[in-house]
Amino acid sequence: MSDIKVNEEENKKSLNFIETIVEKDLAEGKNSGRIQTRFPPEPNGYLHIGHAKAICLDFGIAQKYGGICKLRFDDTNPVKEDVEYVDSIMEDIQWLGFQWDEVVYASDYFQQLYDFAVTLIKQGKAYVDEQSAEVIAQQKGTPTQPGTESPFRNRPVEESLDLFERMNKGEFPEGSMILRAKIDMVSSNMHFRDPIMYRIITQHPHHRTGTTWKVYPMYDFAHGQSDYFEGVTHSLCTLEFEVHRPLYDYFIDLLQTKDNYRPRQIEFNRLNLTYTVMSKRKLLQLVKEGRVKGWDDPRMPTLCGYRRRGFTPQAIRNFIDKIGYTKYDGIIDVALLEYAVREDLNATAPRVSAVIDPVKLIITNYPEGEVEMMEAVNNPEDPSAGSHEIAFTRELYIERDDFMEDAPKKFFRMTPGKEVRLKSAYIVMCTGVKKNAAGEIEEIYAEYDPNTKSGMSNSDRKVKGTLHWVSVEHSLPAEVRLYDRLFGVENPSEEKEKDFLELLNPDSLTVLTNCRVEKELAKAKPYDHFQFQRIGYFNLDPDSQNGKLIFNRTVPLKDTWNKVKDK
Ligand code: ATP
Ligand code: MG
Q1: Which of 214, 324, 442, 464 could form a disulfide with 170 if both were Cys (CB 3.0 to 4.6 A apart)?
Q2: Active site (catalytic) residues
Q3: 499 and 518 together in one domain
Q4: pTM of this prediction?
């Protein structure tokens, strides 16, 4: 008994405020114990990490409480929407590891919404306004100043009915008329000041309904009712919709028939990340203007961008779990997301050797032509991952910055007269270098100690540094793409003076074309993850074709081997 109690308490502690509400509703027997949520993206762009936060909640709540979650496309604006976005949204949700119970569209309800609008006109609760958008905006007033009534507000019901029908037949040009709800021009809630219900769109066919409709409902006239038509019990959305809620309730009151069911809207804080923009409008602009290579550019905060970069669904879900859901907006350090990625890949990514800025190292006392297969452990965190072989030869590549000719005392990498260990191989002593006319180092020379082979009983001689390397002959050429933050400032959305494009980090992408990787990587498939030892986590980019290897740096890695030994 007491055990169960403890578990219950633990469970309570970890509930977020939305789960607490859901459990209370369940305990009170609301909606006969039914739980239904929805994830309602507008198909006008690709999903980003902010959407992942909503997805984890919408699908997560349904999963946790045995309910259902529908994927509902809010496709009320054909000007901006496209099937390309519909397809990508489905792919990204599944990639995150969620599955909807049904796909539905706001456009499924176009007829119901239209009929409801007609009913409201008949009841004197809606009218056709023929003023321009500018005039209507001016008449709206401000939160402290009342609005002004439209001269069309009290036109006869028959006139509005007739005009609305003709609007939908395409008799009037876009922008010439709108249908407005007749509510209250002096309401303290601006959303009640005769909000727009329908506008004319004749120039853009809808991706599903084609040219059937010439009038389209506004989001605010579609969203709450769609929830209601579907039987959504908990409508979870971001905080900015809190002030829209009374309007949704107003429409549902007018729609409600016998039962007193209504969706319960609960708002939570949006995800904002440092050095990132999340607005779809801005992301679209980056793509359209070629500032990035596409929606899936690895520098983008889109789910497809992160996927291409090598972030895993598990890492993203762990991150979302860590940041939680609250009622307060804020900005999360992007380093927290990168930490979650590193943590996940540390557990799963095979360790391999890659030299991204190679310089030749010649082991002068190692026999020419000899090849020794060394054992390289795949993942020290996971013994079950096993090991693979890496070829050791007389001529190797090491990182250029792992060598210093006149090194300070604390430099524990390669320098003349000092010993270092070559990972999985031997201890070597640097004996000299060869430079070109410009003074650049062309080759480094060293001698190895045959008694120090890694894993052999007499090989535990202490040296302070361990370097990674690849064999000249037994390595493959590769391109490596290093990514840095896309924006140079912490909160690009807050800089009001400058256009956000001016805040882009000019060094967000560095392409290294002369890298060398161990042969094992010939087997890599696109999106496979690796840890390039001492450098970071990488994945194989899908651009890799015909034997050409292109790697994306997912996240850098601290040089842990040498750092630890430095102390
Ligand atoms: P826009 O960038 O045009 O404002 P949006 O954020 O409204 O787009 P939608 O496609 O309407 O995009 O969003 C679908 C769902 O995802 C909504 O429920 C919305 O509240 C949620 N969502 C969008 N952005 C975030 C975010 N940054 N954090 C959490 N949830 C988000
Ligand atoms: Mg939206």
Answers
A1: 214
A2: 42, 270, 280
A3: yes
A4: 0.93
